[in-house]
Design goal:
216 residues, mainly alpha, 7 helices, flat
């Protein structure tokens, strides 16, 4: 599942971040994901596409995982748990925002622009494939990269879903394919945020108790 994959990705990133060359590549991939979040979310607003906006949250979620995993590296369990709480909270907010946007679009009945969906969706697909290539070069290292590649494949699958929705919107003139894909991606991220927070909050409390005992 996508949410399990995102949970495991943080551990893999932390392990890779110990090596300078891999850390540099991870920073590049993080920057690509942040840039594509801005571009795709903006494209979703202009195109009135829920699928594009939801897919951009996927890019944002990956970027946050990279950023917080690298920032919390070697800072201890409390920092790691705090980073996970921040990630879960941010993704939760964006997931809810996408759902609210879908409801508003259903009420307004305005179809998205299939042309813009195809354009921005294709760029997002190219960006995710680029990230996959950058990370794939380390497949021979003695580091378990399976979760990272699994997440990358899921990202590509989301991009393909957006492109399929764009084709269906263009051919049928209906906004429902866009709503369906956007809603599916948003629900997956809401579930992911819930699971991350359910695990991270108790871990943060436990780490806090350990830190207080050490200070005593």
């Amino acid at each position: 599942m996508a949410d399990d994959c995102c949970s495991r990705k943080g551990d893999t990133i932390a392990e890779l971040g110990q090596k300078p060359e891999q850390r540099r590549v991870l920073i590049i991939v993080m920057a690509i994901n942040f840039a594509m979040f801005v571009a795709e979310f903006g494209g979703g607003l202009v195109a009135r596409s829920s699928a594009l906006m939801a897919d951009s949250v996927d890019m944002f979620g990956d970027a946050v995982v990279y950023a917080l995993s690298l920032y919390a590296l070697n800072r201890g369990p409390r920092w790691e748990a705090g980073a996970a709480i921040a990630k879960g909270g941010i993704i939760l907010v964006f997931g809810i925002a996408v759902i609210v946007g879908i409801v508003q679009k259903i009420l307004n009945g305005i179809p998205p622009s299939s042309t813009l969906m195809l354009g921005f969706g294709s760029v997002a697909l190219a960006a995710n494939l680029t990230c996959l290539v950058l990370l794939w070069r380390f497949r021979g290292d003695n580091v378990n990269m399976s979760s990272t590649f699994e997440c990358s494949r899921n990202d590509v699958a989301s991009n393909v879903g957006v492109l399929i929705a764009a084709v269906l919107v263009g051919s049928t003139g209906s906004a429902w394919p866009d709503f369906a894909v956007g809603g599916l991606i948003a629900v997956i991220f809401l579930r992911s945020a819930w699971r991350v927070l359910a695990e991270a909050i108790p871990a943060w409390r436990a780490a806090k108790r350990v830190d207080l005992e050490v200070l005593r």
